[in-house]
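Input chain follows. Return structure tokens only.
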Amino acid sequence: MDGYGGLLRVEQQPEGSTRRTNPFYTDRGAWVGFGIHENKTVTGFCGPYDLDGRAWLSSALLQIGTAPAGEKNLLSRDSSCYYPDRLWMRLRGEDMEVEQTLKQVSSTTAILHIKNKSSKELWTYGNLNQGQWTLAGNTLWSKLPNGELLLLSFEAGVKVTFDQGKYQAHLEKADTEIVLIHYANPITLEKALVTAKTAVEQSKTLSMQHTARWVNYISSNTRPELSMEEHRIMVKSMMTLMSNWRSAKRN
């Protein structure tokens, strides 16, 4: 999988007056997409972006820092890449290294895995462009202006605080999974909260299954007579087709 990085450019500028024509990272028919911010001081992936409404739900909903939002962040982006099955980013600063991996594992569910290679604790934070959060257990949820639901679900023990559309969460563990769920179709809040909690509990399994699916896509289409460059063209075509696919949506 690592041999197929950088085939599509997903750099975006959410704060700009016009959207970049670069594609988004999206998969499994999801109605939201993500990107890599052109501003390298932003320590999280762009988005989510509403692919139907053509609007940013947030410029960067899951930013990572060494302190709560608004305080000095010792981390800065070192490198980032779009691979077939994931977005990846590495942050560094003052004997710290943090890796982020974002995978869209279903039409509704994205999983952010944060690997902190230092002993210092982290925070994650972000703002909604419209709407406000409500906290239920360890899940933040918001009913968007178009009636759709957006949820952020954290592992047990993570302390979450919020104010209107802003939130922050204290990540004490070295490795952490955060689940972002977007429902484009009607669903009860009760069912959505149960699904979010289950996704957090099963995040590692869902992530492995997702990557295994992409490994199968690629391995079943490789040919001994093709060069690596030809294989890269084939994989790029697959990524383009998958990112253009949308699941059924009721009006």
